[in-house]
Specification:
By secondary structure, this protein is of the alpha+beta class. It has eight helices and 20 strands. The strands form three sheets. Strands 1, 2, 3, 4, 5, 6, 7, 8, 11, 12, 14, 15 and 18 form a 13-stranded mixed beta sheet that branches. It has a five-stranded mixed beta sheet with strand order 9-20-19-16-17, with no helix packed on it. One of its GO terms (molecular function) is hydrolase activity.
């Protein structure tokens, strides 16, 4: 089971639903993910059990699993590989070593709901960067009460060249058009036995060639998932819920950089797959603002 958003084949409005296999059923009495994520976990689970008539997924347009005032945040330097990669690329290596073992995690806002792209839509790299990589991450979905209600896949796109010059450039290295992709479905928390035991796989293809692949497991994540959520909620309210990407354990070597047209595929056990082609600059993402103005996302 996955919680999804899709465009109604009847009237074209965004609809929250439950996907099972090759069919989707709309949630009854729930008009948005924002409404769903305002509910306590027990009420959310009950709401997910009330669905309408199923429709086949063929031909449906799926939307990012976040809307309203929802936000995507990220945690950084939560895997040993991430610490090492950040230190390799940076002129200020010690800051990454310190945050890896610090009591306070590194947390930063990645994107509001309207800037998020979904499976099969493009992800972006900055035109002024030159060295960019995907970061495949387990993403934790929390409701407005700070309870973990599900999990999904995030591609936290990153400019290594910009962050490497100075850690204070992290906002520019992380927040840009097409910089945040989410899988189309959220796997409910009650269906994932152990989120700290999930395999993660990344494959990057350039034309017909596989130019990079890597694997890791969430068991290598040094932070407790609930601790990360608690740290996020301590100074903030998230009235329509929040999705927190928990960091990456796969970072290509310094001699690899993404190119326009590359195709990135991230797979996480029990959650599914996220696939996105790579585009450059802001123009390929103008549709995000237009779609939201027209109310179709």
């Amino acid at each position: 089971m996955h919680l999804v958003r899709y465009l109604s084949p009847v009237d074209g409005r965004p609809v929250p639903g439950v996907r099972t296999g090759d069919s989707v059923a709309p949630l009854e009495g729930v008009n948005s993910f924002a409404e769903l994520l305002r509910l306590p976990l027990d009420e959310l689970q009950a709401a997910v059990g009330k669905v309408g008539a199923e429709v086949p997924v063929d031909g449906l347009k799926f939307l990012p699993p976040i809307d309203g005032r929802g936000e995507v945040w990220c945690a950084g330097v939560t895997y040993e590989r991430s610490r090492g990669a950040r230190m390799e690329e940076s002129s200020e290596q010690s800051v990454y070593d310190k945050v890896y073992t610090a009591d306070r995690p590194e947390l930063f806002q990645k994107a509001p709901a309207w800037r998020v792209v979904v499976d099969r839509e493009p992800v972006g790299i900055r035109s002024d960067s030159g060295h960019d990589v995907p970061e495949p991450e387990l993403a934790v979905v929390a409701n407005s009460h700070g309870e973990i209600v599900g999990f999904t896949i995030c591609n936290d796109m990153s400019s290594r060249s910009i962050e490497g010059v100075n850690p204070l450039y992290v906002p520019q290295a992380k927040l840009f058009a097409g910089g945040c992709a989410l899988a189309s479905g959220i796997r409910p928390v009650w269906e994932v036995a152990d989120p700290k035991a999930l395999g993660i796989n990344l494959v990057i293809r350039r034309g017909e060639d596989e130019v990079f692949s890597g694997t890791t497991s969430t068991e290598k994540l040094v932070r407790d998932l609930k601790d990360l959520i608690d740290a996020l909620f301590l100074p903030n309210d998230f009235p329509d819920g929040v999705i927190l990407a928990t960091g990456t354990g796969i970072v290509p070597e310094l001699d690899f950089a993404l190119a326009e047209g590359d195709v990135i595929t991230i797979t996480i056990d029990e959650l599914g797959t996220l696939t996105n082609p790579v585009a450059v600059g802001t123009e390929p993402f103008a549709f995000l603002a237009t779609d939201n103005l027209e109310g179709i996302r």
